[in-house]
Amino acid sequence: MSSAFRHHHLISVEPLKADDVLQILDAAEVFFEVSMRPVRKVPTLRGKTIINLFYEASTRTRSSFELAGKRLSADVVNISTSSSSVTKGETLLDTCKTLQAMHPDVVIIRHSASGASNYVARRLDCSVINAGDGAHEHPTQALLDAFVMRRAHGTLKGLKVAICGDIKHSRVARSDTLLLNLFGAEVRYCGPNTLMPYRAKSLGAKVYNRLEEALEGVDVIYLLRIQLERLQGAPIPSLREYSRTFGVSQRHLKLAAPDAIVMHPGPLNRGVEIHPLLADCEKSAILKQVEAGVAVRMAVLYLLMSGKGAESLSEATGL
Ligand code: CP
């Protein structure tokens, strides 16, 4: 908690060190307290401009980045493709040039193409945050997931985490795995072979095809929906059959560690990858993930935009 944050962008978990992650999580703990106050606002980023540029649908990420920016007193502009000049044929490059002319301090981008956020970062002077690019990465989701896991278990070191479902098309699985690897966690992937990434083993994950084996003794059961918008062909015979084999319900909880939690990045497909009763049970941390999203994104915005380290937080927040 003593040095300035050394990154200008947050495109991927890959360049982060364990210390960077801990710096973000520790700052997020402070902003979590701010979010619990009657007045959930600090003047920290007054005069700064944040542009939320979303080329794909989002409920959690977009609204939490907007709230995060507003709670830090920044000016926040939301652009979604359906209401922007993208519908008139404007390219991503021309959109970048247009945004650059408005001198933003940070652009947050979600795009269906892997690498889109990196493309934008190389063309803008300001900081760029990847809010999900294709099947590549979703770094702030991994950070908020880590925040929830650390709160539940006290540490990320040595955790056993089973990520189940459509891992092949999941940017969340990739970012979570990269982050958990920094802390020596054991990451298990479980799903049908057709939804398993080719690089599963090189990412350091153990691959399972049966839930009963994958969930044995885990601290975190992390479920993923099938990314229907990214599927090519028919990797599963039917959703009904998939649900019978890979759908997780409360009966699976007894396989995991007694204090295991259930996580899901959302949106849920209830009755497919997750039984509705499991989604709503007391072990479910799904809404805690949403709650953490605002605090973690406040921390990321603060560290990228203030140019300061987390040691300046007490001055910034009055805590
Ligand atoms: N977890 C997540 O990225 O959710 P949204 O698509 O609603 O932003």
Describe this structure in words.
This protein is an alpha/beta fold and 319 residues long. The chain folds into 2 domains: 18-137 and 290-314, Rossmann fold, CATH 3.40.50; 139-289, 3-Layer(aba) Sandwich (Rossmann fold), CATH 3.40.50. It has 11 helices and 9 strands. Helix 4 (116-121) links the parallel strand 3 (106-111) and strand 4. Helix 1 (18-35) packs across helix 5 (139-153) and helix 5 (139-153) packs across helix 10 (286-306). Phosphoric acid mono(formamide)ester is lined by residues 58-61, 132, 141, 265-267. Phosphoric acid mono(formamide)ester (CP) binds at residues 58-61, 132, 141, 265-267.
CATH class of the largest domain: Alpha Beta
Main sheet overview: 5 strands, parallel
Q: Can you list the ligands bound to this structure? A: phosphoric acid mono(formamide)ester
Uncertain runs:
none
Oligomer: single chain
Specify the structural class: alpha/beta
| Global mean pLDDT | 94
Specify Rg, calculated over alpha carbons: 19 Å
